[in-house]
Write a structure and sequence with these properties.
This protein has 98 residues and is mostly helical. The termini are far apart. Helices cover 71% and strands 0% of the residues. This is HTH psq-type domain-containing protein. It comes from Araneus ventricosus (Orbweaver spider).
């Protein structure tokens, strides 16, 4: 039997100080802390979309509940919307560079 080990996010001192300073300044925005935690764990939108679509196929073949399948479809839609948003931002940035 194979054992899967989970990669732990270990913050360096600078990252810890940044989070603490933001908390001291009253910035309780957890997304900043999450961004720092996830810097090394990025995955492309296309890879995420492919994984979720594979899950959706599996769920369809295994007869999962309709509500669960709808929830996974919503995730696919959210990923596609995020991809489109980033593509639009890139086009705008490219246009402004010209």
């Amino acid at each position: 039997m194979s054992v899967m080990k989970r990669k732990r996010n270990v913050l360096n001192v600078k990252q810890k100080l940044e989070i603490l300073q933001k908390l001291d300044d009253g910035e309780s925005d957890s997304t900043d802390a999450e961004d720092i935690l996830n810097e090394g764990n990025t995955i492309s939108h296309s890879a995420a979309l492919q994984s979720v679509e594979t899950l959706l196929d599996y769920m369809g073949k295994r007869g999962f509940a309709y509500g669960d399948i709808i929830a996974v479809r919503k995730i696919c839609i959210d990923i596609r919307q995020e991809m489109n948003k980033q593509q639009k931002q890139k086009r705008i940035a490219d246009f402004l560079k010209q």
